[in-house]
Amino acid sequence: MCRLRLFLLACLCVSAGCRREELPAFQGLSQAAYVWRQGWGAAAVASLAPGDLPAEVGELIVLVGECGLGHPPRAVRPPWPQLLATGRRVSLVVRMGTGSALGGPQEPNLQEGFTLLNVGLAAARTAGLTITQVQVDFDCPVRLLSAYAERLQAFKRAAPALAVTITALPSWLQAPGCEQLFKSVDSFTLQVHATQRPSAKEPARLVSAVEALRWIAQAESLYRQPFRVALPTYAYVACYARSGTFLGVRAESRELPAGTAYTQLMPAETQEVATVLATLKSGRHPLVRGVDWFRLPFPGDRQNWTRAGLGQMVRGETLAARCSVELRSQGALTDLAVYNPTEQPLPLPPVLVRWTGASWVGADAAVGWEAAPPAGNTLRFTVDPRAGFLAPGERRVLGWFRLTQPAGSLTAEVVSEQLSR
């Protein structure tokens, strides 16, 4: 009987030792935003007034340099006094591409990026900012994760009082070397948007709530350490040749790559983002300590939410997603325009026009649309295959049409299925 009791006690001890560690209590979700600018004009500097920033955003993650991206290393010089005056916590980030990091016996060679980070750190501190954390944004090849960890450890040893974080890709999570990498830094930000190269064979998506939450759960279960999640505010235009070859993506540039025959629009779909955010706010993933929004909107952004829109999303409010059509008739001639009254960029919409009491004479469309031949008293303006977005608050001329005489009645409406995202 004594041996049986000892055996049972041993089994209980083994069972307790194998039981998964309990997750910590949910500590709430802090909000940060990337300040991702290469240049600073007067309007951008002025927009850093504390009252112009979303109240919910308590930290700004400021870009101080880029390298390895097809151009020489570029230091970014943000307006430090204005950043200090925002009253927000400020941390720094450097973007490192693979162009200068790979090849040679020291790969990944991250010295250019580390130098840019140290230059930015010195400038910020000279301006009176207290910087306690920096971030490295480097899409390291999976085969080099262990070497990446070693480079980060060396950087941390040179600055022991500085917290060092990284951006992390979902493709790393089950790769050899990822555990060593995460242990080499103080924390990481899991990027759950723009994780795959767009393909003409399937709908291009910037973010999927199902995939994002699966990756978040995976990171939580595998590594059991606190981390943050990056969510998007911006929109991309994916560009393709007639053959379907992917040519690249465009954000704020209206110029498309040479040979672009058609585009796919990749907005930060508000329903997908809201689902992820609501799940994180619920506390179901207590190791997620905050959200890093990419990126803080600035005046002149065409493919980004507005700051008011970002604030609405953080508060769990719904962003409107519908354009309106404006008609202006002078006799038998009518001009059309579309207007985006919302806080987010919207795809250029197809528009349907109907009238009575007259016959059609002719029509033409502005850049971005095509006027289809009329069917009876109905005229349809379709969207050009290479069309992009209508910026928040933007009003754009769509085209015109002429009838034989002023219409008895005239209506125009957006074809709403194109705005389902």
Summary tags:
single chain, 421 residues, alpha/beta, TIM Barrel, Immunoglobulin-like, 2 domains, 8-stranded parallel barrel, 4-stranded antiparallel β-sheet, 9 helices, 22 strands, elongated, disordered N terminus, disordered C terminus
The parts where pLDDT drops under 50 for at least 5 residues are 1-20, 417-421
Mean of residue pLDDT? 92
Number of domains: 2
Q: Oligomeric state of the chains?
A: single chain
The CATH class label of the largest domain is Alpha Beta
* Structural class estimated from helices and strands: alpha/beta
CATH superfamily of the largest domain: Glycosidases
The CATH topology name of the largest domain reads TIM Barrel
Rg, Cα atoms, Å: 26 Å
Q: What gross morphology would you assign?
A: elongated
Count of helical segments?
A: 9
How would you characterize the largest beta sheet?
8 strands, parallel, barrel
- Helical residue percent? 10-25%
Biggest sheet: strand arrangement? 1-2-4-5-6-7-8-12
Describe the structure.
- The protein has helices at 2-18, 42-46, 80-85, 111-126, 145-158, 178-183, 209-223, 270-281, 307-314; strands at 30-35, 59-67, 74-75, 89-96, 133-138, 163-168, 187-191, 227-232, 236-240, 246-250, 262-266, 288-294, 324-330, 333-339, 346-347, 351-356, 360-365, 369-371, 378-383, 389-390, 395-403, 409-414.
- By secondary structure, the chain is of the alpha/beta class.
- It folds into two domains: 25-233 and 267-314, Alpha-Beta Barrel (TIM Barrel), CATH 3.20.20.80; 324-419, Immunoglobulin-like (Sandwich), CATH 2.60.40.
- The chain has an eight-stranded parallel β-barrel. Strands 13-14-21-17 form a four-stranded antiparallel sheet, with no helix packed on it.
- Helix 7 (209-223) packs parallel to helix 8.
- The longest helix has 17 residues, at 2-18.
- It is elongated, with a radius of gyration of 26 Å.
- The N and C termini lie far apart (69 Å).
